[in-house]
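Batch manifest line 241
LIGAND: coenzyme A
JOB: complex structure
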Amino acid sequence: MTPIIRPLAGQDDFAACAALEQEIWGLDELNAVSPITLHALGLRRPRLGLTLGAFDQGRMVGLCVMLGSLEPGVAYGHMLGVLPGWRDQGLGRRLIERAQADLRAMGVGVVYITFEPLEARNAHLYLNVWGGRAVAYDRDHFPQTAKMHQGLPVDRFIARFDLNAPPPVAPPLADAAPPLVEIPADLQALKAGDPAAALAWRMNTRPVFERYLNDGGLAAVGLRVEAGDGRRRCFIVLERA
Ligand SMILES: CC(C)(COP(=O)(O)OP(=O)(O)OC[C@H]1O[C@@H](n2cnc3c(N)ncnc32)[C@H](O)[C@@H]1OP(=O)(O)O)[C@@H](O)C(=O)NCCC(=O)NCCS
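JOB STATUS: finished
ARTIFACT:
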């Protein structure tokens, strides 16, 4: 059955969401968004945020938490997650689409989201599908609290999404002109199998992204995937911000 997506409502939902955060990211209790905060974020008045869950036959298998901001018309995407067994079936995409629609209805026009610069799946979803532009690179954005970080410094892209822009046409990635920055095709597998190599990717790409995004006036606008000879290579596409 297709999971249904709806706003979180009630203590059981809040507790399930906090538990799911721990399951998806390996966050400890101190770093997960607590049930009491999730309750506040779902208030109808004042509107402080947006909390969505994806439920498969009553079990919460995905979540999306958006925070309001002091800048009018601006929101911040705090968490988007889907349990491993439910990934790559379009649920992440559906959660984003539902969040966009709900935020638009609340008068939000711009969303900022941070995401792992070496995670090809997220780059595809956020840049290619949703049309975001990563405009800055922030080293050590979060402390290494979650198990999933496995010793990797937690650098993040800061990406901007214009909710009133027309839906993105797929960028002509095959013809994308340099600069292209290669990232791992599967960061999670690399971290699990060869953490030293994952760390080397971080340390090698960090100064490149910092130079292009923070100093060079470029933005990350897409992910280009090249497949052949049984291997996939992924490249972040950059263009003038
Ligand atoms: C990011 C996340 C929410 C996506 O959820 P999902 O349900 O798998 O997303 P979808 O199935 O809608 O879309 C996945 C897309 O990535 C693509 N994809 C999967 N693996 C990929 C890879 N290694 N490289 C490039 N693209 C990849 C899929 O083909 C699909 O794109 P398509 O619909 O155009 O074919 C989920 O992977 C997750 O919870 N990850 C861990 C937490 C996280 O990183 N959250 C985001 C930042 S906070």
